[in-house]
């Protein structure tokens, strides 16, 4: 793999991530317009008329999405801690970890984040939090015990870079958009199953069911596209965090060595949720280890360990 330089890589990944982030609301509003168009009466199936109705609905759609965002945004940190079983790691419990985190935070010019531990012998780590008061680095017991100081320093620097680049916020936004489409699709499936919306307002059969099918089809398209955007963002940010760690520690080979060890046993048993799994330095779910084909790589939350190591070894 050809390496194009640290600053070029950071600029390219930031640009691509921004484009992907903008695509979330674009897809949402486009699909909303298409729903109005496909469900409009034949005599009103005029793009100009549909656009007029759509523009009147935009404020209400935006308010609904905004409320969803606020609820999901402020409950996300508690959900992550519950899903991973992480707990605070006291300084007196492991001064080695605290010294590494503190020194790297000073080097990066950052406020020291909280440090959590996951009681699991596997090797993994992740960063979380949406503000300086909630920024946290969580390390598994296995990664603390089985990596040497330089390797663990590289992992911590990787997670600090995620915090400094606000990657957690970016991933939360992408997860929320995917969740919106998933919720709509599930609601439409339930409506079809129980027939609660199987009739139109005039009591005629068919038109209501057709509207649900259209909404379901568009929601599934939105879910697929949002998922692809989310996975692409996640992969780009992993490359950036690796680059940031190499810059902070000046020891890219140590991080490469840590990634090799992590790849042998990254599975955290407590992690069942896919949206949480993608936050780790390597996805801890076994099904996401089946990579190789182009199609599979599009749905991967992380780039392959092999490609990440190849880039790190070129620093």
Which range does the strand content fall in? 5-15%
Shape: elongated
Total of DSSP H or I helical runs spanning 4+ residues: 11
Mean pLDDT: 80
As laid out across the biggest beta sheet, the strand order is 1-2-4-3
Listing every helix as H and every strand as E from the N terminus to the C terminus, the arrangement reads HHEHEEEHHHHHHHH
Tell me the Rg in angstroms: 22 Å
What kind of assembly state do the chains in view correspond to?
A: single chain
Number of domains: 1
Number of strands: 4
Helix fraction, binned, reads: 55-70%
List unreliable stretches of 5+ residues.
Answer: 197-205
What is the CA–CA distance across the termini?
12 Å
Largest sheet: 4 strands, mixed
Which structural class fits the helix and strand makeup?
A: mainly alpha
Describe the structure in your own words.
There is one protein chain. With 315 residues, the protein is mainly alpha-helical. The chain has one domain (6-86, 165-312). Helix content is 66%, strand content 5%. The chain has eleven helices and four strands, in the order ααβαβββαααααααα. Strands 1-2-4-3 form a four-stranded mixed β-sheet, with helices on both faces. The longest helix is centred in the C-terminal third of the chain and has 43 residues, at 207-249. It is elongated and about 70 Å long. 36% of the residues are buried.
């Amino acid at each position: 793999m050809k390496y194009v330089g640290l600053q070029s890589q950071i600029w390219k990944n930031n640009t691509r991530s921004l484009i992907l982030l903008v695509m979330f609301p674009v897809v949402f509003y486009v699909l909303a317009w298409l729903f109005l168009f496909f469900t409009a009466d034949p005599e009103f199936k005029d793009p100009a008329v549909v656009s007029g109705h759509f523009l009147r609905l935009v404020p209400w759609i935006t308010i609904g999405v905004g409320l969803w965002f606020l609820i999901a945004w402020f409950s996300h940190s508690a959900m992550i801690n519950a899903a991973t079983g992480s707990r605070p790691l006291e300084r007196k419990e492991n001064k080695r970890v605290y010294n590494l985190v503190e020194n790297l935070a000073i080097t990066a010019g950052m406020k020291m984040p909280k440090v959590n531990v996951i009681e699991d012998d596997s090797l993994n780590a992740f960063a979380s939090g949406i503000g300086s008061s909630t920024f946290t680095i969580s390390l598994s017991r296995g990664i603390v015990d089985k990596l040497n100081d330089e390797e663990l320093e590289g992992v911590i620097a990787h997670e600090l870079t995620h915090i400094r680049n606000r990657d957690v916020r970016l991933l939360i936004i992408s997860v929320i958009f995917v969740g919106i489409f998933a919720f709509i699709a599930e609601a439409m499936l339930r409506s079809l199953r129980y027939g609660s919306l199987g009739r139109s307002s005039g009591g005629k059969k068919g038109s209501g069911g057709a509207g649900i099918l259209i909404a379901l089809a568009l929601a599934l398209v939105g879910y697929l596209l949002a998922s692809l955007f989310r996975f692409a963002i996640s992969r780009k940010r992993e490359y950036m965090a690796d680059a940031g760690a190499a810059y902070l520690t000046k020891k890219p080979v140590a991080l490469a060595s840590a990634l090799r060890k992590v790849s042998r046993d990254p599975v955290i048993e407590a992690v069942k949720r896919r949206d949480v799994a993608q936050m780790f330095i390597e996805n801890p779910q076994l099904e996401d280890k089946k990579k190789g084909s182009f199609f599979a790589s599009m749905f991967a939350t992380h780039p392959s360990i092999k490609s990440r190591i190849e880039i790190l070894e070129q620093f």
